[in-house]
Amino acid sequence: MNRQFIINFHGIGQPARPLEAGEERYWISVDAFERILDYIVDQDGETRANISITFDDGNISDFLIALPRLLNRKLTARFFIVAGRLELPNFLSSSEATELRRAGMTVGAHGFAHLDWRRASDDELEREIRGARDMIAEAVHEPIDEVAIPYGSYDRRVLRWLKRAGYKAIYTSDGGACLPHFRLKPRNCLRRDMDPSDIERILRSANLITDTLQGARLLLKQRRRPPFAALRTSTSTPRKSLVPEGDQIAGRRG
Description:
Elements: E1 4-9, E2 11-12, E3 27-28, H1 30-41, H2 45-49, E4 51-57, H3 61-72, E5 78-81, H4 94-102, E6 106-109, H5 122-140, E7 146-148, H6 156-165, E8 169-171, E9 177-178, E10 184-185, E11 188-189, H7 196-206, H8 211-222
Parallel strand pairs: 1-4, 1-11, 2-3, 4-5, 5-6, 7-8, 8-10
Antiparallel strand pairs: 1-9
């Protein structure tokens, strides 16, 4: 079965706002962004079809820089928006988010205030998971059924909330590849010090991931059978994580 490799971006170009601690390393130059897109376009048909692109946070660079370059290369992407930042300076407006949809892009939720959901109260999770979804759906005039977890930080409690909310796809920052039928989808967050050669290296490694390792990743998070998909069996042996050093739970961006 083909495996998907998901590349995740945050900001592109020169930030026009103060950045959160640790956020700067996930802003990449326009030139680097274009070279990465060109690398994707240059892949053979099967490889290219199995590479997906996502964006987190709803920065204005999604609309001003990313969108035209994606369209020029006939690429699509998913844009996960922080609902509480809609209409704020240097973030997407409702009309811009709607234009992303009209251009053939997918829009999803990324919480309301970009909190660490493992540390959020039940009231906060209600606003982050359900309230944010409803707010974005109203902005783009269509249902929202995909979500990206802020900071890639989740546990069994967070997964239960997401399951009850009815999300069809849940994007993390775990790194590596994923299987199309899994609802929990690990992504590879690009940093400013990475280039197409880093993507190629991870792609080559990602091809070694097996169904069992994907299931094991879920079991480690949930400590029980995953609620979203049955695990397959395999005879492969464990290997070292593909997540780059510094992109573990405490330090990675989402």
